[in-house]
Amino acid sequence: MNVLILGSGGREHTLAWKLAESPQLTQLFIAPGNAGTAKLGTNIPIGVSDFQAIKEAVLQYQIKLLIVGPEVPLVEGIHDFFNKDSELKHVGVIGPKKQGAQLEGSKEFAKEFMIRHKIPTAKYRSFTKETLEKGYQFLEELTPPYVLKADGLAAGKGVLIIHSIDKAKRELKEMLTNQKFGEASQTVVIEEYLDGIEMSCFALTDGKDYVVLPNAKDYKRIGEGDTGLNTGGMGAVSPVPFADKKLLATIEKTIIRPSIIGLEKDNIDFLGFLFFGLMIVDGKPLVIEYNVRMGDPETEVVVPRIQSDLLELFIATTTGTLSNYQLEINPQSAATVMAVSGGYPEKYENGKAITGIDKVTDSIVFHSGTKVDADKIISNGGRVLALTSFGKDFKEALKKSYASLKKISFDAMNYRKDIGFDL
Ligand code: AMP
Ligand code: GLY
Asked: Nearest residue CA, atom 2 of ligand 2?
């Protein structure tokens, strides 16, 4: 079977790496891919939102399965586009249609879904320009800190956590009347602040049956001790050490299963990954957000722990035969640490030559933002490489990733030295 993966980050490199070991794979294509995916298949230089060019590639290379890495093409309706096209209809797509993708594409839609299906989440109300005054009143009723969320996709920047009421009001106004996050903040969700510890769970579903994938915890802030600006993610561990059997059973019973059943009840035809961003408050899990794709860098620790054939699992998902699927998981821990460009998540430079990748023996080097330039590998993004290792626990795995990072170098390389510090 010929397969096309859409995307160019560490998530897509990891999916490519895992699919490459499947005996069912004939040829692998990645669009646009990076220097890491180029070693596992053929990179095609087209953007993830260029549906017409993707269609041409699918026909030219006789692709039978499309795996959509990032959320944007899903929210834009790539699955619907395939479904409605007589030449593409038969191609399996991993990733929900536009309606289901709203679980990530609209915070308000996600909140309404959770309330409708009694899935635990923070109390909230949503506001528009017309109801700004009511928004101020609602803020007065809450206790700080205040959580303001742009309704739409804002590349991970749309959530503000603010301590002063005056600043919260100013920011609400900025979002609603000055479109601080463009169209994404035409509606703003204000919600109760949840004080707890975060973790993430993942399911792969055909809309009816599902398999629960290994869980993970990621580290979003740029600075040590979880300080500074938010990034796409600076590292991750799997499994989450504090997630015992009892907590995982509660998560499945109160969150994962009701979410899948909710999709079915709402007649939302959902096929693909469902990512549950959770806050555990006094032992009780609540949903902070849904994503309709895998996380990055969570994929770099979740997927390597899957021992089953991933292509077989995807085929079971697209053919609706997940019900008896037994997922095999490596009981070892995995950890990944992200090497980023100096300056990220603000301004940074691309094009730095990367050395030492070939010297790494104890970790897997997943490429996040790289490209091939003549015979060199150069940086091409804020997040550059993710070094994943295994160990008997997350500490042993991290030790290996940190030792491997010492062998790698590029100008102004930066990484967090404290992944897992809070566990
Ligand atoms: P998101 O973009 O939805 O992942 O939110 C970014 C981060 O904001 C999350 O990872 C949490 O750390 C934090 N966050 C979001 N919602 C809440 C909440 N209701 N209470 C506390 N922290 C939150
Ligand atoms: N690492 C967080 C995300 O992928 O959304």
From this structure: 295
Q: How far is ligand 2, taken at its centre, from the CA of residue 236, in Å?
A: 10
Q: Which two tokens stand for residue 77?
A: 């309706």
233 lines ligand 2 (CB under 6 A): yes
E strand spans, 123-195: 124-128, 146-150, 159-162, 187-191
Name the pLDDT band for 188 (thresholds 50, 70, 90). Answer: confident
Average per-residue pLDDT in the chain? 95
Domain range list for the chain: 2-96, 125-191
Answer whether 2-96 and 125-191 agree in fold. Answer: no
- Coil/strand/helix, residue 56: helix
Sorting pLDDT into bands at 50, 70 and 90, what band is 175?
confident
As a whole number of angstroms, the distance between CA 293 and CA 273 comes to: 5
Q: How far is 405 from 35, CA to CA, in rounded Å?
A: 18
- pLDDT band of 177, cuts 50, 70, 90: confident
Q: Which ligand is nearest to the CA of 275?
A: 2
Instruction: Give residues with Cβ within 8 angstroms of 382, minimum separation 6.
Output: 231, 232, 340, 341, 344, 345, 348, 369
Contacts (Cβ under 8 Å, ≥6 apart) of 124: 111, 189, 190, 191, 192
| Cα–chain center distance at 225 | 22
The one-letter amino acid at 254? T
pTM over the 0.85 mark = yes
* Residue 228, both tokens: 């500074």
- Please classify residue 244 by burial: count the beta carbons closer than 10 Å to its beta carbon, then call 0-12 exposed, 13-18 middle and 19+ buried: exposed
Ligand nearest the Cα of residue 295 is: 2
For residue 85, the tally of other CB atoms under 10 A from its CB is 13
Q: Looking at ligand 1, which atom is closest to the CA of residue 193? A: 20
What pLDDT, on a 0 to 100 scale, did the predictor assign at position 230? 86
Which tokens go with 317? Answer: 């998902």
Residue 157 has pLDDT above 80, yes or no: no
CA of 287 to the centre of ligand 1 (A): 10
The letter for the amino acid at 93 is: V
- What is the CATH number assigned to the segment(s) 2-96? 3.40.50.20
347 CB burial (10 A radius; 0-12, 13-18, 19+): exposed
What element of type H or E holds 371?
strand 370-373
Class of domain 125-191: alpha beta
- Cβ contacts of 331 within 8 Å, gap of 6 or more: none
